[in-house]
Fold this sequence. Notes:
The protein is of the alpha+beta class.
Amino acid sequence: xxxxxxxxxxxxxxxxxxxxxxxxxxxxxxxxxxxxxxxxxxxxxxxxxxxxxxxxxxxxxxxxxxxxxxxxxxxxxxxxxxxxxxxxxxxxxxxxxxxxxxxxxxxxxxxxxxxxxxxxxxxxxxxxxxxxxxxxxxxxxxxxxxx
Length: 147
């Protein structure tokens, strides 16, 4: 994937949509690209978070450990971002993320992620919106299972 294609990918993610192209190019250039096979773990629940992941190609499952065993709470796909909670809140990872297919991801380091948030307050607003959407979806799933 070319640098320009990665910039376009980032532009399609709501939290990066309003960032100027030169900054997106810098983000794409300084981010690491990683490839995962079906079944590979991107990160595990409880680990310390040092980066966020943007899914470029493929799908991944978000899995939470529960007293009854692992529970898949979400499916990630192209343009989804994951892992930002641990780096924003400086807490251990809240879930395990496992590749459900062959997967490629752009890995954004914690310091770069924070620098972008400081420079672009709109990005912080978009992160809050995304986290609120996820919380709502999780609450709906839990309510449906207990009904």
